[in-house]
Amino acid sequence: MALNETSLNTVATVSTELEAALLIDLLAEQGITATQTGGLTAQFRAEAPGGVEVMVLQDQQTAARAIIAENEALNAQYQSAGQDTDYTTDLRKFGYWTLIIGNAVALLMLLVLAR
Length: 115
Known about the structure:
It contains four helices and three strands. Strands 1-3-2 form a three-stranded antiparallel sheet, with helices on one face. 58% of the residues lie in helices and 15% in strands. It is extended and about 55 Å long. By secondary structure, it is of the alpha+beta class.
């Protein structure tokens, strides 16, 4: 493979690692291998504003951008259709509670196993 075919190009820059992971999964479903970079500076972990870049091989860049654009168009259509924003808020709350409960269960298991 020539160097051009193996170089990575940024196809999207998002705010969080979660958003990047969702895009990477979306691309993987279409057979495109992607990676992320910049997670340490995202969400002010390093006390500096930053974003997470989603990167793909140069020869997959056009297809990846098309998939991301289609996904953004679908998201915009969903939002403009007047969908219930409470659903999104409730879903986010559910995710937070799931994370909190999961961590609590893991901590309890560690405490039980440490005896």
